[in-house]
Design goal:
globular, 3-stranded mixed beta sheet, Rhopdopsin 7-helix transmembrane proteins, mainly alpha, 308 residues, 10 helices
Length: 308
């Protein structure tokens, strides 16, 4: 087949049944609005409440920004396709979508690792916490993870879109993701797929190993706390982070590390809905439920809005 750079790609979407477009449009519109409002509320609470001006909530703000970027990169285009029934995306639009999505996902991997390090210092070395996790260090860590994610995204996107594409421009997904996109190439993509797999494994294994080791020492430190109230407080500061890590890594490992099946070609779409749409929706809920500081900040924010 001719090797070309197509002007547009066609996103096949979630289902091949047009009658399902309206229910899906309604469902994902509500989910998108709730996710954006939830994460924006977290950001506002942290900015407006002096009691939340701590490293833990600084990193949580970064997480909320990433979640808004993640869901805003994919869902609005999907909703537009539902309305127009065109399901097309330009070549450069597809490249931008893959680039931003990859940037966000890698940055979130690193951010969850940094958050584990923050909890390790807070629980294992509480007397040195303010000396180690200073505002300057927090800013440096934040800049480093965003730049690292950007660098990886540039390399990943450049290698993908340097491939020659065939006449078949139908991407069997609802957004431009690497696995279905690379299948459209007219050349052997073994090296590209191996590079992506090795990069994913190294990144995920390194970050997850660091998190596991951090929590190993955190658990040992918690057992050494004599008071039951102290142990409960230490555990409560880690529960939200552990939950987010479990959901995020669990979904990514199932989606990217499992062998691809020819019998269930749409299973990756279902998994993608979880880490693209529902994780950004769940994260603010996980971090605000049973968190007294966040609940107090939310009440203060609501009172300020009513006063205006």
């Amino acid at each position: 087949m001719n090797q070309t750079q197509p002007a547009n790609f066609i996103l096949c979407g979630l289902l091949y049944h047009p009658e399902s477009d309206l229910p899906l449009f309604s469902l994902f519109t509500i989910t998108y609005i709730m996710a954006v409002i939830g994460n924006s509320t977290v950001i506002l609470m942290v900015l407006l409440s002096p009691t939340l001006h701590t490293p833990m909530y600084f990193f949580l703000t970064n997480l909320s920004i990433l979640d808004i970027c993640c869901i805003s990169t994919t869902v609005p285009k999907m909703l537009h396709n539902f309305v127009t029934a065109s399901f097309t995306i330009s070549f450069y639009g597809c490249a931008a979508q893959l680039y931003i999505f990859t940037w966000v996902e890698i940055t979130e991997l690193l951010l969850l690792t940094y958050m584990a390090f923050d909890r390790y210092i807070a629980i294992c070395k509480p007397l040195h916490y303010n000396l180690i996790i200073t505002p300057k260090v927090c800013l440096q860590m934040s800049i480093s993870l965003w730049l690292s994610g950007k660098f990886c995204a540039v390399v990943h996107t450049s290698l993908t879109f340097s491939l020659p594409f065939c006449r078949n421009v139908e991407i069997n997904h609802f957004f431009c993701e690497f696995p279905p996109l690379v299948k459209l190439a007219c050349t052997d993509t073994t090296l590209n797929e191996m590079f992506a797999l090795i990069t994913d494994i190294i990144m995920c294994v390194f970050c997850l190993s660091f998190i596991v080791v951090s929590y190993f020492f955190i658990i040992l430190s918690i057992f050494r706390i004599k008071s039951e109230e102290g142990r409960r407080k230490a555990i409560s500061t880690c529960t939200s982070h552990i939950t987010v890590v479990f959901i995020f890594y669990g979904t990514l490992f199932v989606a990217y590390m499992k062998p691809h099946s020819d019998f269930f070609p749409d299973q990756n779409k279902i998994l993608a809905i979880v880490y693209v749409i529902y994780i950004p929706l769940l994260n603010p809920l996980i971090y605000t439920l049973r968190n007294r500081d966040m609940a107090h900040a939310l009440t203060t924010l609501i009172n300020k809005i009513k006063a205006r």
